[in-house]
Amino acid sequence: MSRLGSFWTEVCGWRVHARVSRDPVPPEAPIVVLVHGLGVSSRYMLPAARALAPHYRVYAPDLPGFGRSSKPRQALTVPELADALAAWMGRVGIGRAALIGNSMAARSSPISPCATRRGSRAPSSSGRRWTRAPGPRASRSGAS
User: Fold this and answer.
1) What is the set of domains in the chain, with CATH numbers?
2) Once rounded to an integer, what is the mean pLDDT over residues 32-52?
3) 3-class secondary-structure state, position 83
């Protein structure tokens, strides 16, 4: 079974917890960020993290207000959670990653382009496309 470790990062005044794969993978292995939905934490993403860890560098953060991360005075909105995710990614040095989310995180996949640059609310200029899982609301969105 793949090993995951915990670490904390200070982001925007919050202490953000993340689970990170500890198994050795090639340095060029892609990065995967697993984003939990509302009402759960990175624990929900553990089965996926363990399955992906032998092949990818896997990160599963607890967004502020969830899991082991700091609790803001009031609940963050989805755009604020997106900003927190982008800030966390910048802080830990993730410039490019595949983001996999469930529930709210999957529906708000357009968060993904703003997660490519810390503090940026604009879509990424990389031209990458984000695809949701097939279903009645499946769509593709691209950066312009």
Assistant:
1) 4-120 (3.40.50.1820)
2) 93
3) helix
